[in-house]
Design goal:
298 residues; mainly alpha; 0% strand
């Protein structure tokens, strides 16, 4: 059906309701618009300017709870339209309010979670358009990972004195670093070189929490693609850990570990030979298991 008959009127009315004076109407409209974004995908591209103006204006109207839904709508938009978002006018509209929120939220504020998830989608979509913002975002993510690991170590050594940290801070920071690595590709190389992310990643890959390992292996795969020269010196430490995580009981961990092994093998080529015994038997077991999910088999 022609867009002008259905998509455009629906989108226009939803965007009006996103700016409604009633908080419950805002919430319902913003959630509905996120669903529309998932379905319409790149069909929204001709209307991006109007959509972004509305979503950005909503930043000045929304209170705490609805802001979290707004982050989701912006992240979903970025996932849906991808690199079409990478235009100076769109970047100049979208990034200032996001960076303003990023700057005023403290490291221990849980409202960082949805903002980090949103920025991860935006960074992947903007690609080189995110370059002006990448250094402070990268450094803060590394700092969040480092801080959470320090709190975790303190809790293990003195559980009576230090409570266990919320590892979600580390997980969303690792995911945003993955978004940066995927979006910026080789541009992330200098940031990696000047940080201790590889040492931190080595610790995260051995964490007892499956979700931490899952995000760690995703980041390892993305860094392998983006700047393998910084991953290569650590391969002998990383591959045994990857081999130990090829357990389909933890399907998402196994999936990401398998993918990271594949990316590393592509880069190493024939130099993968010394490490094959660490992973091959487990990979063959996974292929031959009944009911192995299709995504993992791929």
């Amino acid at each position: 059906q022609p867009h002008d008959s259905y998509l455009k009127p629906l989108m226009t009315e939803l965007l009006k309701r996103i700016l409604d004076g009633n908080k419950r109407v805002q919430e319902a409209a913003c959630s509905a618009f996120a669903t529309l974004e998932e379905e319409a995908c790149t069909e929204l591209v001709p209307h991006l300017g109007f959509i972004l103006e509305t979503l950005v204006f909503a930043f000045s109207k929304y209170q705490h709870k609805n802001l979290l839904i707004l982050y989701d709508a912006i992240g979903t938009l970025a996932d849906s339209v991808g690199s079409h978002l990478n235009k100076p006018d769109f970047i100049n509209l979208l990034m200032p309010p996001l960076i303003h929120k990023w700057n005023i939220l403290k490291d221990e504020d849980k409202d960082l979670f949805p903002l980090l998830e949103c920025l991860s989608s935006v960074a992947t979509a903007l690609q080189s358009g995110f370059l002006p913002y990448c250094e402070p975002v990268y450094c803060r993510c590394v700092s969040l990972v480092h801080h959470t690991l320090c709190l975790h170590m303190a809790n293990i050594q003195n559980p009576d004195q230090f409570e266990a940290p919320d590892k979600d801070f580390m997980i969303v920071a690792l995911d945003l670093l993955s978004g940066l690595a995927e979006g910026l590709n080789g541009h992330i190389e200098k940031l990696v070189e000047n940080s201790n992310i590889m040492q931190l990643l080595h610790l995260c890959m051995q964490d007892t929490m499956p979700e931490v390992r899952q995000s760690s292996f995703a980041l390892l795969g993305d860094l392998t693609k983006a700047c393998f020269q910084h991953v290569q010196p650590h391969i002998s430490n990383f591959l045994p850990i990857l081999g130990q995580n090829l357990n389909p009981e933890y399907i998402s961990v196994c999936n990401n570990a398998t993918w990271a092994i594949g990316e590393i093998s592509i880069k190493l080529g024939a130099d993968t030979r010394p490490y094959i015994s660490l992973v091959l038997n487990q990979l063959i077991d996974i292929i031959n298991r009944p009911n192995t999910p299709k995504t993992l088999l791929e």
